């Protein structure tokens, strides 16, 4: 999951290089920050000792994933992304979000 999210981050950095210059401090910055947040919070969460802390960081990763999804929808609708790139990103986000959701549920219920 961390590898998938890191791969998404690299892809987003590559794709946003093609965005208009006026989006440098808008969608480019937001997309990059949010995708970095996904893999960073997975890394930090999995290093925590308590299940509560682990679940918290996984929840943050999930929220960042939804933020990236929203920004990608906007980028596609503004014609900053091709349909092909948009679909590739959507599939990656779907996979990551499903795994994050399952991991969070597992962490929270494993001791019950």
Question: How would you explain this protein's 3D organization?
Answer:
This protein is mainly alpha-helical and 112 residues long. Helix content is 79%, strand content 0%. It has helices at 2-16, 27-46, 51-77, 83-109. α1 runs antiparallel to α2 (27-46) and α3 (51-77) packs antiparallel against α4. The protein is elongated. The two termini are 25 Å apart.
In short:
The protein has helices at 2-16, 27-46, 51-77, 83-109. With 112 residues, the chain is mainly alpha-helical.
Q: What is the general shape?
A: elongated
- Structural class category: mainly alpha
| Number of beta strands | 0
Unreliable parts: none
What secondary-structure arrangement, pairings included, does this model have?
Blueprint: H1 2-16, H2 27-46, H3 51-77, H4 83-109
